[in-house]
Amino acid sequence: MDSITPEGVREQGERPRRVGIMGGTFDPIHTGHLLAAEAAREGAGLDEVWLLPASVPPHKQGAATDGEHRWRMTVAAAEGNDFLRGCDLELRKGGVSYTIDTVLLLRERFPDTQFSFIIGGDMVAYLPNWHRIDEIVEQIRFVGLQRPGYPNAAEGLPDPLRRALTMVPMPLVDISSTDIRERRRQGRSIRYLVPDAVYRYIEGNGLYEPES
Fold this sequence. Notes:
Blueprint: E1 17-24, H1 31-44, E2 48-53, H2 67-78, E3 84-86, H3 89-93, H4 99-109, E4 113-120, H5 121-124, H6 133-139, E5 141-146, H7 159-163, E6 165-169, H8 177-185, H9 196-205
Parallel strand pairs: 1-2, 1-4, 2-3, 4-5, 5-6
Helix pairs in contact: 2-9, 4-6
Enzyme class: transferase
Family: Belongs to the NadD family.
Function: Catalyzes the reversible adenylation of nicotinate mononucleotide (NaMN) to nicotinic acid adenine dinucleotide (NaAD).
């Protein structure tokens, strides 16, 4: 498993490097994730987006595949895009992946980088309920993905959270990892729902196939 290292990150000159962090189980990572990453990068003026597979998300009971498979699919999805890379920080740390712990580790390892967490528009309203959110907003910013036809949840946030948030437009894409896994188990096609490299990895490793 090849991890992000300071030596592997490009210099940006005088101003701090602006990096968006997109976390998720990525089981599997799919085209919708990549569209969201690109929308956030462009809309918020980010230099890069790092894809961060979770070890054990606090709201889920583990993942359907182990971390090594999810990491390799993440790396495969980022191939060919100079502005996109995988970050295995949470997988290496292990345990439950709380945002505050990840933020503190990132700030410790990359003190000259300005980080933003990328979240879906439906998660914006729940920011006040995040574990140790007051500490999080002292360290990073947020980028919220605003889908067309949905209300802007930022308007109801407390002032400190609203000031730490940038909303950017996101195309309406109805793709989910849950649906992709179910399609595989039913023997249905998932081609074009995931990047070609991820599709080949899933096929080559027999992931999400029906149980015999």
